[in-house]
């Protein structure tokens, strides 16, 4: 008996040591071994529950926190028992088990009320009510509640509660429209995480909430910056898996934007695995949609469609991904019908902005420039209101595409340059490559074939690195297209102007027919005369007939 006790003591000591150096798997294994030989003390059970949670053993962590709770109660350590009940409840709620989680929170509150303790756990148990107030549409009251929670954390010197309180303040302020001040509170909470003041269990909650808030306001730069920082922080800890469900999906979106597609696919795979157990979590649809997006961009259209349909089965919208899939498949009518219906049903600037960019792309492909122009105007207004680099990049890219379709290659070039600079700053590889493809078309319109060739080569390299089959197909089509289809090196738009000029049309009539400005027509005529060495409209008309352009 003494020998078994000694072996348990050794294993427990090793577990505590591993826990201190954040070797979570080792801690879990040693403490589990000790527990098999001789029941662990309440403090060690709490450590085992935390270590199990941090390496993704959620069921085991819940069971162990419940044991720790009872062990602390048996010892009369009421506050510690309530703390275990709080973390158990939070993990249950994260898994979608609202009833069980709410039951444990109610139990913890009754225990604390009966004990009439003035302790920091009072602040922890106020968090769920403050969150319900915020989600119920009263951010001002929620903000005051989170301020009170933070003050309680300061009084007791509790770093975890302080970070969670500031996190709640930040969410409440952003919801009220005080975005800059709210983001400052989120940043403050994140700093506490990366400096090691906050426990890893609370750190995952802080980071994931920050990502969700920033995604809602399109602050992609902040999401990217903190993701990089926290990834380094995680790398220093053994087998750490602090992210759950929706957070994993949003991390996948960030990795996709940065061109880290294999990592993005792995992240969403983990999200699907986590959200499938227990079944029925509605966030699973979000993970399936994100997987569909990655597959669509890679050109795996059949698998992408399966993911979109499975996402729909979970109650998640399939647009604009499905419409863009139809566009990539050449089913333009289906794409246009789907995106038009989706935009008509979208409500609020956030939801509409996620559709408008795709709407512009599909309407331009369908030749509906006026519809594309109206959508671009709305997207521009939303971007001005949010004032984020991500939305500005979307707007400038859409503007460049529309200007190119209008025949104003010079203005299109300027807009695409602005889009390129913004996507480069965001380290958005795929979006940057798409800008380059449009630059190829613009530079060819402007007669700058050297730059067009360099842009095409850069786009090809980017799509190859990403593994984007549809992108490479567009590169191939552009490479095969004849740069100068007529004598004299005229661009496509200049040929259109020449054909109309040869019929006797005036500059105004040409402008009306091509839906461009008279000034643009005059520039095309001037460029055309220079390239062909002509000095009159009569000579240009003769040239057009001689070369079968009419």
UniProtKB/TrEMBL annotation:
Q: Tell me the keywords, alphabetical order.
A: DNA-binding
Q: Which GO terms describe its molecular function?
A: DNA binding
Q: Which domain of life is it from?
A: Bacteria
* HTH luxR-type domain mapped to chain residues: 483-548
| UniProt GO BP | regulation of DNA-templated transcription
Query: DNA-binding among the record's keywords?
Result: yes
Record Pfam families: GerE
CDD domains noted in UniProt: LuxR_C_like
The protein depicted here goes by the name DNA-binding response regulator
Q: State the organism named in the record.
A: Phytoactinopolyspora halotolerans
